[in-house]
Design goal:
This protein is an alpha+beta fold. It has 13 helices and 21 strands. It has helices at residues 8-25, 60-70, 72-87, 104-108, 126-143, 157-172, 194-206, 235-246, 263-266, 287-291, 358-369, 377-387, 396-406; strands at 35-40, 45-49, 52-56, 99-103, 123-125, 176-179, 183-185, 188-190, 209-212, 219-223, 228-232, 248-249, 256-257, 272-278, 294-298, 306-310, 316-320, 328-332, 337-339, 348-349, 412-413. It has a six-stranded mixed sheet, sandwiched between helices. α2 (60-70) runs antiparallel to α3, α3 (72-87) packs parallel to α6 (157-172) and α5 packs antiparallel against α6 (157-172).
Length: 417
């Protein structure tokens, strides 16, 4: 367990990440729209736009306690004076078309019966919001404390929060506002918070890998970190890569040769480098578009592994095998391009010696004599259990195959054997 101590600025940065995620996934704002954050807790309030964060010691709790002690009229007057002094000289200059997401106690303002039908879940112009909130606060003051029995802080938090919202919107002047403390998606509630923002940030850090073909036209992004890297010299891996290298590829009239294997692989100095990834990606994927860029093949009718190959240049993008249990897929990093923040580990030496040609077998034996340890069968099983079979089952590879098959794709068989 790790304890995090966040500053107001750090908390706001995580909150805006979570609020923007909720607003976009629930279709309150579209891609490309400018988004800002208005947030307030018991002690501080934040205005956040991009990396610019203003954190203010607004102290709603103090305003609530003034309400309990002096009544709503005096408490609002005292709190307005405090906020005016706090914001004196503060200039907020943001794009005029920004959509401001009001969350936490500011978002809660719109949940009460007096405002829910006007503001809750609606994206409203700043000017209209100001008019509604000013009228609401005036009504609260006019009613005074008559509506309360035994008073508590809960009786005053709406009015005190309203003072902050009005003061901030007067500074912002333009744009639109969405007051919403919780979002609903398919019957489930999403609450913007620094905790959700942190989870999204960690996911972004974890899913930061891209695999692309040699020419760069076919890409798979937002993959997790590599799970395992091995060296394999079996004839099947070698054949499928050489087959792609020897063929002509290209779409829309282009004709390009397939990706070539490195010289040391061609010369049997080493086997192919295979890198494994979890069978999932982060975020939305256009499977139809991806399926239109690839074909699927097996090297024999009875071959267990299924290969996904880019149509543009013949790069084997992904390989799936039943033994992976839909938990991972592999790519040949000798021919595909891997971009990741993680360092690719030195590959484990797991050559399939029984399938090697005489020349290649001699080289592998020579490697062992030089001290390069080849993993035995049981060592390989342990490696796969610890690195691959601990991954959750995924559907990414299967979803591409399903979209491809749905559009009439038929698995190509490379040779009969």
């Amino acid at each position: 367990m790790k304890l995090l101590l966040l500053s107001g600025e750090q908390e706001a940065a995580l909150e805006i990440k979570s609020a923007e995620y909720c607003a976009r996934i629930c279709h309150f704002v579209e891609e490309g729209e400018e988004v800002g954050l208005l947030s307030s807790g018991g002690m501080s309030s934040q205005v956040c736009f991009g990396k610019e964060v203003v954190s203010l010691a607004t102290e709603i709790k103090k305003g609530n306690s003034w309400g309990e002690e002096f009544g709503i009229v005096t408490a609002v007057e005292m709190f307005e004076t405090k906020i005016d002094e706090l914001l004196a000289g503060l200039e907020l200059d943001f794009p005029p078309n920004t959509t401001w997401l009001a969350i936490e106690m500011l978002g809660q303002i719109a949940s009460g019966p007096a405002l829910a039908h006007i503001l809750k879940g609606r994206v409203v112009e700043v000017g209209e919001c100001l008019s509604v909130l000013e009228n609401h606060l005036s009504n609260k003051i006019e009613l005074g404390d008559k509506e309360f029995g035994e008073r508590s802080w809960k009786d005053y938090v709406s009015a005190i929060s309203c003072v902050i919202a009005i003061a901030l919107l007067r500074k912002i002047k333009t744009g639109r506002v969405l007051f919403l403390r919780e979002y609903e998606l398919n019957g489930s509630l999403l609450k913007p918070s620094w905790g959700l923002g942190l989870a999204l940030e960690l996911e972004e850090e974890e899913f930061n890998t891209t695999i692309s073909c040699k020419c760069g036209k076919c890409k798979i992004g937002k993959l997790g970190a590599p799970k395992l890297r091995i060296t394999c010299s079996c004839v099947d891996c070698r054949f499928k890569c050489l087959n792609c290298a020897e063929r002509n590829w290209g779409v829309l009239g282009e004709e390009v040769s397939g990706p070539q294997l490195p010289r040391d692989v061609m010369n049997f100095d080493r086997g192919l480098h295979l890198t494994y990834f979890r069978n999932e990606v982060s975020g939305n994927v256009d499977f139809e578009m991806l399926a239109s860029q690839v074909l699927f093949s097996r090297i024999r009718p009875d071959a267990a592994s299924l290969n996904m190959i880019s149509l543009c240049c013949g790069t084997i993008m992904l390989v799936m095998h039943p033994v992976y249990e839909n938990r991972v897929f592999l790519t040949f990093d000798d021919i595909s391009e891997i971009r990741t923040k993680e360092l690719l580990n030195e590959p484990a030496f797991v050559n399939d010696w029984k399938d090697l040609t005489g020349e290649h077998l001699a080289n592998c034996i020579d490697k062992s004599k030089r001290g390069e340890h080849r993993l035995g069968d049981e060592e390989c099983r342990v490696l796969f259990r610890e690195k691959i079979l601990v991954s959750p089952k995924g559907v990414f590879f299967q979803a591409i195959l399903e979209a491809w098959t749905k559009n009439g794709g038929q698995i190509e068989v490379l040779k009969n054997k």
